[in-house]
Amino acid sequence: MFSRILTLIIKELEMLLQDRQSRMVLIVPVILQLALFPFAATLEVKNNTLAIYNEDSGRESVELMQRFSQAQAFSQLLALYSEAEVRYAIDNQEALIVIRFPADFSRDIAAGLPSKIQAILDGRRSNSGQIALGYVQQIVNDYSNERFRLQQKNVPSSLVVRHWFNPNLNYVWHILPSLIAIITSINALIVTALSVAREREQGTLDQLLISPLTPGMIMIGKIIPAILVAVVQGTIILLGAIFIYRVPFAGSLLLLYSSMMFYCLALAGFGLLISSVCATQQQAFLGVFCFVMPTIMLSGYASPVDNMPVWLQYLDWINPLRHFIVIVKGLFLKDIDPIALLPNVYPLIIIAIVTLSSANWLFRHRLA
Amino acid sequence: MSDSLVILDSVRKTFSHSVKPALEGVSAVLKPGQITGLVGPDGAGKTTLIRLMAGLLAPTSGSISVDHCDPIRDADQLRAFIGYMPQKFGLYEDLSVIENLELHADLRALMGEERVTTFNRLLAFTDLTRFTSRLAGKLSGGMKQKLGLACALLGRPRLLLLDEPSVGVDPISRRELWKMVHELIAKGMTVVWSTAYLDEAELCAEVILMNDGQLIFSGKPADLTQRIHDRSLQIRQITGNRRQLLARALRRPEVSDGVIQGHAVRLVLREGVDRPNLNELDAGDEAELVPVAPRFEDAFIEALGGGPGGDSVLAQSLSPVLGDEDIVVEAVALTKRFGDFTATDQVNFEVKRGEIFGLLGPNGAGKSTTFRMMCGLLTPTSGTARVMGIDLKTSGSEARQRLGYMAQKFSLYSNLTIEQNLKFFSGVYGLRGAWQKTVMAEMIEVFRLQPYLGTTPDTLPLGFKQRLALACAVMHQPAILFLDEPTSGVDPVTRREFWTHINGIVEKGVTVMVTTHFMDEAEYCDRIALVFRGKIIAAGSPDQLKEQIASPQNPDPSMEDAFISLVQQHASDVSI
Amino acid sequence: MKSISFRRLSALCRKETWQILRDPSSNLIAFVLPVVMMFIFGYGINLDSTAVHIGLVLEDTSPEARHFADNLYGSPYFIVHAAETQAEVGRALTEGRVRGFVVVPVDFAEKLKQPTGTAPLLVVTDGSEPNTANFVQNYVIAAWTGWMQQRASERGELPPPGISIEPRFWFNPSAESRNFLIPGSITIIMTVIGALLTSLVVAREWERGTMEALLSSPVTRTELLLSKLLPYYVLGIVSLFLCVGVAALMMHVPFRGSLLILWGIGSLFLASSLGLGLLLSTVLRNQFVAAQAALNAAFLPAMMLSGFLFEIRSMPAVIQGATYLIPARYFVTALQTLFQAGNVAPILLHSGMFLVFAGSFFIGLTALKTRRRLE
């Protein structure tokens, strides 16, 4: 029995790795994505343009402008001289944010009065705007605290901010662990869903069913190669993250790989489920596409799961990627312990059991 | 109108993806107002030639003239007077019959009054009037073919190009199509009909016979068969085993080719030799050697230098199948319903050890459903299908270990190499280690696969693909072999080789169950069950079936005659 | 060039329409997927954290400390969970149950009383979610500033003369991310309909052998091309207006531009994405390969590099350069502008010009690759 399953696995791997083209399909996108995503797929704000409409002529506004220009978020400063120019700059997206110093700005500060700056933001990019606004706020706060300290005796209280797990809030640290989860899932799904559809299309599935192999063995023969592919791809990204992007890996590799196993089983379950309702590779491909899109979007990668409506958060429970991203990030950055891992591992196990057994049922059912 | 409608002058065509030219210097003339058969095995270059005539491909060198038009330069003129039906009929499966017709009518500017009358005429002609609103994808093979023809006929073409119109179509539909085409010829149309079925060639006024990109013969089919006049013989009244007799006969130097026809054996002799001695062949005391009319297929094999030998090296390498059951395959009141459609209705039969049993029937008759239930791919709605006394659906692997299966499309893994395919299929059946190596080495030697081990099945010539598929099906020494239309679309030489192996295997005690709508294959069977509308309407040996319909007008009917009249008899009985 | 026969063209278009309507996978992509995507982008992706769970450890239970805590509890941006020890809340942070915590140290009130001392508060965020971490930091600062000012005024002291920033989000005053995500996501839907769906259609004709039947009829190249473009164009435009309708009427995203301009720019974008899909289909002649190519050449760039979700300006220069070649980038800008800013001529003209160029490039290339023969 084991030798027969082994035969199936070897065949599947041979088919995946036979020619150059199919080997490339498995490896090249992974490397490209590894090179591109950490830079492209980020909600970080940097190198943006900050425009300044300064109606003030005092020293304070100039000092603040200098501080703005040193921020990483803003590589360009654009000077504006009229309301019309402000309107044009925002309308045409020449600047993400316009800072307007009122005419009495320096005077108010000098007089020890509270002063106001206006920040005009492009609502079409309100998220980047908010982040940029955060940077501006921080610069302004630092400046006013410094002034206060210089002039006065004492600030009664201070805030000490620490970012755990990622002290400098480096976005790449956030992206790469998620990427391990995302990229492995696409291929694991394609390998399972499409290979069954292909066997059905080419008639070899009948050949297998007539042989002494049981449907269970055939499914195992599809699942294990998918897991192998996912593990290899995951390892490539893991190595890239650690050695190229220098993201420190804090947790346990053993835990990472064993939970990856459960994740792949859950995915393979979905892949087999898709393939058992699809007659052709074409349909299987579209099916995988329609499944993967929402899975990734709702995984918590693009925006936190906490921000979704509550009912959608419950619905999203069946999304294996959502749980696995938490696991990978937890292990990668937080060195999370096995017990803390459990709340995210057991959903994977349940999803795997449900999808695999229904795929198995459908698989047998469709034959009859 | 002149005497030649199409002139091919040393036409050569190469494709960038293959070294070997698809056509090599083909010259021929097609006369107007008749059917010209474009005949040859798979891969002979028939489709390429038709596409060249339709202006869909440009020749690499040489010239083509279709009614004084160059198909490429004068494409617009050409398209106004040709009708073309591509392989698979070129229909939009998600459009209905009438929508397909309307599309082609619009494309060919068939409007107004004329359009209505043409539609009515063609629908009546093709007998599709009842099905106008049905989607083309839901039509049977025969109906699709008629619709394809109707679409090609819409522009009132003078030249009709039909590319393998009879593939996957049962004999009844084929006959109807021929009748329709003959009516068109009578109205002055010129038809080019490409086919791999050599019996169709005999119905053509002239044939262009091709093999491997080269022209082998061009002229009247009778001229070719004339060459082997007096050399076609049948050994009748055989006592003893006719398969062994065929093998012995093919070993004789004077015999060029031979096949089994029911209880008889048909032989073609080499030129200028004496008839073989029946005693030496051990054909039995009653046996007689009767000259028969030569068939086009006999002449074709002869033109290619004779058939393959009669000994199966494969069978020699197999050990005899042992076992005590006498009835190996058994169907009892087998029924399968899909919704309210009954695909198989109360079917009963038994297959004995060492028998070749055939399920024969037109498209959609239910033979495939029955077959799939027998090998455990479908669950019967009621009744039982037993193989070696075991219900395959409930019992597991051990019973299936003793089955061999070969599907119509030679279901091999197209992106694995030959060696990997062999290794996989032997591994699946539990062959391991030294044993696996020995068996694989044997198969490679028997089927002469050595030079191809590292290539994929896609690149193999059809004959080798067939060999590989057979090797994969018998490596584990099955006791029963299931064959699903094993030689459809396969050329006669390869088909003979295949049946030589099957005959040899059967002699070792293997039981063979085969579905087919191919009359030649039916002749090889010991017994046939004729399936129609889900029921077995006749059963018996091929000769018994033929005798059932023998009449004074047709004392010696062919298998196809038997098939058609039995089905029609049954159809009319039911409708009355 | 021969003249186009309206009869043949309309027959072909009719055929194509039937096929779209009857093919389950086309229906899935054309009608189901847009709805699912609008839904996901409308509800699933929300960049605005409304209320983040944070922990609070009050090691000091003095009235001062409680006063500060009240400010946190009062913030609409936080759901505060009280904890006994730092270890406890630290574990909650590790497990992702809270996204940050604040610690008020034992000696907080004491230090606050000392005239020269500074009483520190510790804020810890979950750095593995940088955006949320920033959010937590900013709003804890806001709560803290509020507390400082209240405290000062209660004590009759002059508050530290802070510089306050008054943010104004033009077009989108409440800075809701769905207001820009939904218009942007229409680009993704148009890309999928335009490129992914059409990448299948010509290849399908080749695979099923119907192309041969067409080519042997008097159809011209232009008719063939137009018959593939027009039905899918109509499908795309219907889908565009459907999406815009759903966005504006059901999801209440304001639409301030002109529908006519939307139609114009939408048509231009569709032209380029249909062109790309047809080009792949025509050249590759295999549905499976073409669909995969379309996914990589159209969908992924539209997703990653169009700026609809990820800020282009934050990408490295090389990648920024690449985004200029992606039609989706221009359509995203145009859509977000039309929805929120209205008819801003320079942006729309600029986008339109590029789309004209991209559309004619892809359609021209497809025309060039469309053959009247099989080779």
UniProtKB/TrEMBL annotation, chain A:
The membrane topology noted for this protein in its Swiss-Prot or TrEMBL record is: Multi-pass membrane protein
Please list the residue ranges annotated as the ABC transmembrane type-2 domain: 137-366
Q: Name one Pfam family in it.
A: ABC2_membrane_3
Whether Ligase counts among this entry's keywords is no
Query: Which InterPro entries does the entry link to?
Result: ABC-2_transporter_component, ABC2_TM, ABC2_TM_bact-type
Keywords, A to Z? Cell membrane, Membrane, Transmembrane, Transmembrane helix, Transport
Q: Where, per UniProt, does this protein localize?
A: Cell membrane
Q: Which GO terms describe its cellular component?
A: plasma membrane
* GO MF, any single term: ABC-type transporter activity
Tell me the protein family, please.
Belongs to the ABC-2 integral membrane protein family.
Name the record gives this protein: ABC transmembrane type-2 domain-containing protein
Q: Which organism is it from?
A: Methylomonas denitrificans
UniProtKB/TrEMBL annotation, chain B:
Judging by the UniProt lineage, the source's domain of life is Bacteria
Q: What CDD domains does the record tag this protein with?
A: ABC_DR_subfamily_A
Known Gene3D superfamilies for this protein? P-loop containing nucleotide triphosphate hydrolases
The reply to whether Metal-binding figures as a keyword in the UniProt entry is no
InterPro entries tied to this protein? AAA+_ATPase, ABC_transporter-like_ATP-bd, ABC_transporter-like_CS, P-loop_NTPase
Q: Which residues cross the membrane?
A: none
State the protein's name.
ABC-2 type transport system ATP-binding protein
TrEMBL record, chain C:
Q: Spell out the subcellular localization from the entry.
A: Cell membrane
Recorded GO MF terms: ABC-type transporter activity
Q: Which UniProt keywords apply?
A: Cell membrane, Membrane, Transmembrane, Transmembrane helix, Transport
Q: What is its main location?
A: membrane
Q: What membrane topology does the UniProt entry give?
A: Multi-pass membrane protein
Does the record carry Ligase as a key word?
Answer: no
Gene Ontology cellular component terms for the protein in this record:
plasma membrane
Q: What is this protein called?
A: ABC transmembrane type-2 domain-containing protein
Organism, scientific name: Methylomonas denitrificans
